[in-house]
Model the fold of this input.
Amino acid sequence: MNSKVHLDLECNGVKASFDGNLDEVLESLIKFLTDVVPTFEAARKILYTADLTRLIDSVEGLIVITSDGEIILENVKTSVGEAICMGLTGAYIAKKIGKREKDSLSPIELGRIIGKATKTVRNELPNLINSGLVERVEKGKYRITAAGLRFTEREVAPSLRRS
Done:
């Protein structure tokens, strides 16, 4: 009996399809599992993907998001750049939990959130962009990057907890 087999497989976001007789599909599947999956597992060790739960835990007590999506920084005494990262992290979280439509903020909004003049915020944004922590998404709107989320989660929030 020479029946055809079709197999669709998805493993950790990697998709593969196999067609052929049973032996061919089984051989292809074993090759896929031995070649691709270990490589993917190794790559995951160096990939950073923001884990929303871990991110929220790291900024708990430092960022408050109101029911209408407003972002409040609680007792955040740090540099303007780090405060901007905290504010934009708040916008990112608020969008992810459905409290805001966008994860971007204007310099005026950021100034209000961090308690600094808009001009001060505008002067700091180019430094954050050059550092890869923030990106401009449209005229007058900025959002935090994955590198910025990592920086906020692993550097800024822990240092604020120590102070």
User: Anything to note?
Assistant: The radius of gyration is 22 Å. The chain has a mean pLDDT of 90.
